[in-house]
Amino acid sequence: MPDLGAPALRLYTRLLEHGPAPAPALAAALALTEDQTERSVAELVRHRLVTRDADDARARWRAVSPYTAAAELVGPEENLLRRRLESLERTRARLSSLIPLYEETYRRSGDSGAVEVVESRDRVMLLISDAAARCTEEVLTVQPGGGRPAGYLERALPRDLEMLGRGVRLHTLYQHTARYSPGTQEYVQAVSAAGAEVRTLGELFGKMLVFDRATVFLPVWDNPDAAVVLREPSAVAFLCSVFTTAWGLAEPFAASYTATTSLQLQDTIAGRLAGGAKDEVIARRLGMSLRTCRRHIAELMDELGADSRFQAGYLLALRTHGVAPPVPAGDPARASTGP
Fold first, then answer.
1. Rounded to an integer, what distance in angstroms lies between the CA atom of residue 81 and that of residue 98?
2. DSSP codes joined into one string, 254-275
3. Residue pair 177/138 in contact by the 8 Å Cβ criterion
4. Residue 325, CA distances (Å) to 46, 85, 103, 314, 318 in order
5. What domains lie within the chain, and their CATH numbers?
6. At residue 276, does pLDDT exceed 90?
7. Is 218 exposed, middle or buried (0-12, 13-18, 19+ CB in 10 A)?
8. Is the pLDDT of residue 101 over 50?
9. Distance between CA atoms of 288 and 175, rounded to whole angstroms?
10. What is the number of alpha carbons within 13 Å of residue 77 lying toward its C-beta?
11. pLDDT per residue over 25-56, tens digit each?
12. Which has the closest alpha carbon to 148: 123, 121, 185?
């Protein structure tokens, strides 16, 4: 329901200060037209803030207390919502009471029960939503593969803003290539304004979502709709330490490459080239398209004067470690002129 308009607020104030009055008298006192008065009265009636004297022949309007209006307008729905919330809490309590039995059964069978494979995408999303709603301290996310799909970001943004609004810390790692994704840029701008921290790295160790350093969601390698839900404390702590290491090496998110990110990209491509990796593998590891990857490789080889992919990796490795490349015999143009 929209807020009260200025004429309606003036009319309500007049009734509070001077008592009940018929519509014509209110219009005259407030210099309102008949149409403005009718609309203002109707607006106040919708808010339950005025009532008409039933036994008054002049049909006077009387102001109603906001307490009474709230009780009449909001009270029934509020009571219904309260009963619904109480029912949900009772349901959660009943199910939570079975957790000790669940864990004890798995303990006796030699299985900790701390690793769960959820194969339904709907169930995975439900578990993530529940974990987000119950999160109180921190969320760590790793999102490899370049820019995120628009649909994913649209679903994630309200959830993440709600958590940030509750004071939950949000740390997200993307790959450098995500910097050129307009949708990702908009998402990062929105969550950063709300207090999140986002950084990028050339290569990431895999997709991961961690709530309160207690529950981890990992992908299932051969089923994109499934997830592994990990709750075993030692394993969770290890994955969080891996995240911390990567976070320390990453750079704050920006809308373009910096000199450092460009150098990291070159180093990564060179290392992959020297190792004999195919273009498709390099592109996938860096979260970029095959076409973009091949363009970077061509630029790198041209810059280094390399005749082959392996040679490009070798020459860049020498340059990175401050070692001059060997001078081919009989090449006076590249020979040293020193003593």
1. 26
2. -SS--HHHHHHHHHHHHHHHHT
3. no
4. 83, 71, 61, 9, 7
5. 6-64 (1.10.10.10), 99-252 (3.30.870.10), 259-324 (1.10.10.10)
6. no
7. buried
8. yes
9. 9
10. 4
11. 999 999 999 999 999 999 999 999 999 886 66
12. 185
CA pair distance 8, 42, nearest whole angstrom: 9
Residues 220 and 227: beta-carbon distance below 8 Å: yes
Contact 246, 207 (CB under 8 A): no
Q: Per the structure block, which two tokens stand in for 94? A: 């009943």
SS3 286: helix
Q: Is the CB of residue 229 less than 8 Å from the CB of residue 116?
A: yes
Q: Which whole-number Å values give the CA distances from 53 to 19, 22, 61, 73, in the listed order? A: 12, 10, 6, 20
C-alpha closest to that of 275 among 316, 301, 314, 319: 314
DSSP string, 116-144: EEE--HHHHHHHHHHHHHH--SEEEEEE-
**pLDDT tens digits, 294-319:** 877 777 777 777 777 777 767 766 76
